[in-house]
Amino acid sequence: MTNTLKMRKKIIIKEFHETPLRGHQGVSRTMKRIIQHYTLKGLNADIKEYIKLCASCQKNKSSNHSIQQPMVVTTTAGRTFEIFFLNIVGLVDLSCKSNSYILTIQYDLSKYSTVVPLPDHTANTVSQAFIEHFVCLHGIPNSIVTDQGREFMGKVFSACCKLLKIKKINTTAYHSQSNGVLERSPRTSIEYLRHFVQNKKQDWDQYVAYAMFVYNSSVHTATGFQPHELVYGYPIEVPHTLSKISQKSYKYEDYTNELRQKMQESFKLAKDRLIDKK
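Above: the chain sequence. Below: its structure as tokens.
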């Protein structure tokens, strides 16, 4: 391999791995992003070596940190916002905006995730965030899944669910003998934030939107689709400096027909894959 080709591959891997819109993801997801644009021999081995030498990845990989384990459920939603998971993650550092917790919301079928910075995790704060960042944007779901934290088990949140006619499911922490869907959104969000706030920890909540962009634009291993694609019907195209993205032209009628057909096919494939993994 010539030095020119080696340098070009290194530049490509760096751009698809290290920028805030890429998020220092692992070998598999970095690989999937690159092969959408390039065909390069020996790319998998090069990505493995690059990530092995990435100082930020070695410092911040999840095995070095203790993070609350995810929850499981054994049912699978049949539409995008039918069932979703709520979880509270506590962060050590108080941000400049006085936030020290995050509320994570992940939708069962699509795996689409939303993260909301919070100043505390009282029932009032969590209920308000849930209404503003989910219900007002996506409507009222059939069911929600939470752990048995005080903010979810108290009268305020229970009354909120009762008022909206939402079935509330309480689960215990995940253990290796359980069956169900592993929800990795909280862990992935924390991993992302560690990469980009190492020297400015009080600014962590300014990077939350970028963390969710990375997560929702990455192909999920359980469904085989980007979470964004299962919600909106098309994958996110992340622009990069090395090539241009081609634009597709549509008529309104053709677009709606194609979108409806694609969403139906995608939902069926995603649900089948989720069921197979249980």
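The chain has a mean pLDDT of 76.
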